[in-house]
Amino acid sequence: MKYFDYAATTPPFEEVITTVAEVMRRHYGNPSSMHRYGEDADKLIKRSREVCAAALGVSPSEIVFTSGATESNNLAVKGAALQYQTRGKHIVTVSTEHPSVYEACKQLTNLGFEVTFLPVDEEGHVTAEQVCAAVRKDTILVSIMHVNNETGRVQPLHDIGAALKKRFPRVLFHIDGVQGFGKLSVDIRGWQADLYSLSAHKLRGPKGVGLLFVREGVELFPLLSGGSQEQGVRAGTENVPLLVGMSKAVRLAGERQAETARRMIEWRERVVAEVKTIPQLRLNSGKEAPHIVHFSYPGMKAEVLLHTLEQLGVAVSTKSACSSKLAEPSRVLLAMGRNEAEAAGGIRISFGDEHTEQDIDELILALRQAVAKLESLERWKR
Amino acid sequence: MHYDMLLLRFGEFTLKGKNRARFEKAVLKHVKLLLKPFPGASLRKEFGRIYVVLGGEPYEQIIQVLQKVFGITTISPVKMAPVELDAIIETAVALMHELNVDEGTTFKVNARRVWKGFPHSSQEMNHLIGSPLLRNFPALRVDVRQPNIELRVEVREQAAYIFSDVIMAVGGFPLGTNGKAMLLLSGGIDSPVAGWSSMRRGLEIECVHFYSYPFTSERAKEKVIDLAKVLAGYAGRIKIHLVPFTEVQTAFTRTGQDNLIITLMRRSMLRIATMLAEREGALALVTGDSLGQVASQTLSSMNVIGRSTELPLLRPLVMMDKQEITEIAKQIGTYDLSILPYEDCCTLFVPKSPTTNPNLWVVQKIEASIRDLNALIDQAVATTETVVLEAGGAVEGRKEEVIQEDWF
């Protein structure tokens, strides 16, 4: 079976697995303890923070470690909203955001916040003008993702950040960077981001760990209260082995980004070309993020195509993994103006840096065979 | 904005006659080191100035980096033009355009004809450049006394330089051009600032830190190493001597002279620092003392403590207010580290009422009564661990058993 669901999660680097195991075995001390065991664990956290900060081009004091992207996004959105609610209670985000931003925003509406979910064009883009037009006097936060997790659309963060900060310097700008890091170049300062979320397991690190960049001077209302870990923003004993593992993965992904992107774009182009030759399929993206190709098979339940491909030895995904068990059509595709049939038949293929030319050959062959097989069944049924 | 070069101006050391070349060389070396991450940029030296030719590198970032270089007083981003009047005017207009002049902005042109072969005199050029600017920007007014914008034009043989911004840099003397001193570095707010201030006066600094394990934790030591790393960010690299002070310190607790204990400790610290200074070829001690801040920093305490060394004792902060010191600490990036809550040896054994007016004779008597004091001091010097810190984090000469670099 070949794995083509890297946007959902990735197999960890072998070195990361060894490191996590080794640190787990040797440095089990509680980083908050006073004795040597604690001090050693604390040193490892400090170094992890430095390594992650260097990879992101920010300073170590601006990194808050979390349990992953969901927590980072929740902390960014709710933490900023609760902290700055005296300034206003309005948030701007996009209708195609990941559930961990989208649902967090929806939840806030129960607490008296108002949220503007910006529509996207049929390509899935939102513009700087749209964002600025939606900002009001009581807007405190704008949250936009870098790369869409379903379609691979890349939002124009540079334009948005520049326009937003020029006209509304007090409005915080959060970027969900989970699908972008390691695939595209990342410029947190250039985007003028105040908050930036990252998850380790999307870049071949361990699951259950992530980080949130919190720009110097920005305060967040803690979602988890307790000890004074992570500058009081996020209580709880730090998971030292996972943090070390994450920092290694982040460093490697950052260093290899350009090379990784170059190879993935080649594969993406091949798969895109193939999808275009199959008349039953409709391409939804495949020209922005290097690692995602997304298409629909209108009239076919996506799950059927997924399982057919699985029989042929290829694992792909429908929508995002986080919501793929729900029966509804994709919210993201509907927002991009696709009809119900198209939105229900979405398939996402996503690559990783260790795929080979041969893997892509197999993928393309399987795709061709799967569609042919389903077509013949359809005819037989009719 | 588009600029071609940065003009770096030097400060007071340009008055130093014969030594000037040495000073300039030191700045040049420091600048070169910091420009490494910007491979496109190159340096050009002219009499009394350095130019950084940007070569497409981002000028804002480079300015931020160079603002920290001791010896540079101001930085101006410069546009270049061919040595023809029309080209100069065109560039001046472009620069003015980028400055976004609002209604009522005042300006003057300050032209200098360095190359006398240029057909227009400086006076003429002020008019020749000023008039088209006034035509192009109706919002502009001329004010030769206190203009908002002073547009400077320097005509040289190879090119004309046009600039208006003058950005303040840190100033002082180039690093290490005034010799070497030993800084007594604690985990507090003051001593790192004293270290930075000394470096700004051209002193090369080595740090001495006293630690009192088990009375203080390993983390307190780490914190001071981190502070020294910040200083290394200015110096490129810095040495820190870590002195085990527990034995000396506890010897004083046995004398039963509680209120003098700080005085006694300080004197021993200065003795140890003096021995290290002599070993390392440093000619002075630097402390973070600020007059009247605590009991050991009253004039009479300073007198009794200061007599324990024959080296010049430099106290850059002696007349500064705590608030001023805190401001600098924030600017140079040591404040956040300094306020981390780990006890260091200076705050240990602090008596209920430390004396503000110690008696030298009494202090000397007590010292003489501790039979093995000199031996303890020698022992402390002998077991001192020396670490070299590089800007950016690498640590030399110290075994980091915990951190295995291949894990990261």
Automatic annotation (TrEMBL), chain A:
InterPro entries: Aminotrans_V_dom, Cysteine_dSase, PyrdxlP-dep_Trfase, PyrdxlP-dep_Trfase_major, PyrdxlP-dep_Trfase_small. Keywords: Pyridoxal phosphate, Transferase. Residues 3-363 form the Aminotransferase class V domain. Its cofactor is pyridoxal 5'-phosphate. It comes from the Bacteria. Gene3D superfamilies: 1.10.260.50, Aspartate Aminotransferase, domain 1, Type I PLP-dependent aspartate aminotransferase-like (Major domain). GO terms for molecular function: cysteine desulfurase activity. It holds the Pfam family Aminotran_5. Its EC number is 2.8.1.7. This is Cysteine desulfurase. It comes from Paenibacillus polymyxa. The lineage of its organism: Bacteria, Bacillati, Bacillota, Bacilli, Bacillales.
TrEMBL record, chain B:
Pathway: Cofactor biosynthesis; thiamine diphosphate biosynthesis. It catalyses: [ThiS sulfur-carrier protein]-C-terminal Gly-Gly-AMP + S-sulfanyl-L-cysteinyl-[cysteine desulfurase] + AH2 = [ThiS sulfur-carrier protein]-C-terminal-Gly-aminoethanethioate + L-cysteinyl-[cysteine desulfurase] + A + AMP + 2 H(+); [ThiI sulfur-carrier protein]-S-sulfanyl-L-cysteine + a uridine in tRNA + 2 reduced [2Fe-2S]-[ferredoxin] + ATP + H(+) = [ThiI sulfur-carrier protein]-L-cysteine + a 4-thiouridine in tRNA + 2 oxidized [2Fe-2S]-[ferredoxin] + AMP + diphosphate. It is found in: Cytoplasm. PROSITE patterns: THUMP (PS51165). Residues 60-166 form the THUMP domain. ATP binds at residues 184-185, 209-210, 266, 288, 297. It comes from the Bacteria. The keyword Nucleotide-binding applies. HAMAP family: ThiI. Belongs to the ThiI family. This is Probable tRNA sulfurtransferase.
